[in-house]
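Reviewer 2 asked us to include a model.

Predict the structure of this chain.
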Amino acid sequence: MASGYTENYGLCQWQGEDKFLREEFNQDNAKIDAALKAAEDKAAAAAQSAQQTADRALSGLEAADYNIYNLLLQNEYEGKYTGYKKALIYEGFLNGDGVSATSGGLLLGEKGPTLCRTGQSSIDLGYGSTTNQSSSTTSSQTMTGAGRLTSFTFRIRNNQNEQRSASIQWTVTVNGKEAAAGTKSTSQAAAYDTLTVTVSLSPNVLLGPGDVLTVSVRSSGSGWQYYLSSGGSGLGGVLTITPVSGSTGSLTTVSRSLPACEEIIAWVRHTAGQVTVSVGGQALEKVDARETMDVQGTACTETQFRLSGGLEAGNTQFRLGLTLDTGDNSALILDYGAVLL
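Predicted model (structure tokens):
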């Protein structure tokens, strides 16, 4: 009989004076057999679990790509760089760099691609008394429609007894952000004379409904007086706006070099209306729509599209269409993303 046993499984350990018993060998073999079977079962279970995990990962590729799309948009809004440009296309419309053209009533405003049934007309602030300040700013003007600010006009008085010209620094802001700025040199003004000054904007400043517009002017020298509005609140003058309106429109993205793929999944988030997507002249099929929020917390509809026919490698453009529903006055395209599988 064994006088000692192993620490983990209690297998027999014989000393020199111990006698061997068949029962002890049989017991040890049974323990070893059971331990090997348990190890085998555990390995099989781990392999099955790994396969299930892989299956879930593969079946969840669409959701994972969607999450990456959101993450990349978030990075874009935060100003971070990311190099994912081939298998995943995304655009948050922070500027117009990703858009090559718009058509119909769609306008690429400060808030993004905007479609509005109502066009914004010019705003006449009128003229009242002069101010002794060397600078002046219009009162905030909230847009009720869409349009292009093509120019603005104001009046300035030479309050000195000599003929001279003025150098005027001007700034146009939309929603508190600088949209355009420059310097305007006036013609010669006689002593105590008044000049009407017009600043033309090229490119135009694009405006959408709800945008808040202000214009500020500042003269570099002393002795210049600006005319206030007829209501006496802020700079007077005229904001010349070309109305843009419509119930349907589209945008075409810049051309991108894309790899060949078997399938494309795309998402478009928009505040109202109906959207369409095509790539390389092929229309994507709408597969789903749900109410959600974009990365900036704006309530919106997210429409999902799919192209099952695949795409050949080459330079390709996406086209997004937007149509207002009955009762909608305006809509924004907030962002879009496309995954190439």
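Residues 22-59 form the longest helix (38 residues). Confidence is low (pLDDT under 50) at residues 76-86. We have added this to the supplementary material.
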